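Data availability (excerpt). The following record was deposited with the supplementary files.
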Amino acid sequence: DINPGADNSIPSNLLHQTMNGKVYFPANEPTHGQELWASDGTEAGTTLVKDIYPGSESSYPYLRAVTQEQLFLFADDGVNGRELWVSDGTAVGTTLVKDINPNGNAILQGWTEDATAFDIFFFSASDGQGLPNNNRDLWASAGTATTTIKIMDHDVDPLTGSLYPYPAPISLETILYYGLNNTHLWSLTRSDILHLFLPNTP
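Predicted structure:
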């Protein structure tokens, strides 16, 4: 009973994937607000991972994918706005990956666990650059600030003034496919991705 008594803890957003034999989910209780929890299926093994937004305020963690024993999530720590975080299932290992938009929220849009390919997490976000400043582009992350990069600046839609990668990317063997504004199909190969992360390699 995470939130003791008749009140709800509202556990939700459980991923199909597990990590270290546990499932991860956001839950709410008065002391910490809605934060990241983990469970191994026992009462003793159901614990708060980290109070990302310290105190009774909520970070509203939004869990997206697990890759290479890293859990990717979106959360607000009360300082940097809603940004990309990663967790290894411990408090010390739950950290901000990168402040993508230093001037506000990154307006992150995630997909399901299928948005991973080549051990990399793919998502859309706005870094606050360009017009309009809520323009989202395709990003990729391997879990560190240096390996969190914008794949490319797509042109802004002249009719709507906005852009977003949609539908969600899917990987088929060595090619990643993703949609753009639900109208165009784009693709990236494994070698494209490796060249973006390691530009000095052949």
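Summary of structural features: The mean pLDDT is 83.
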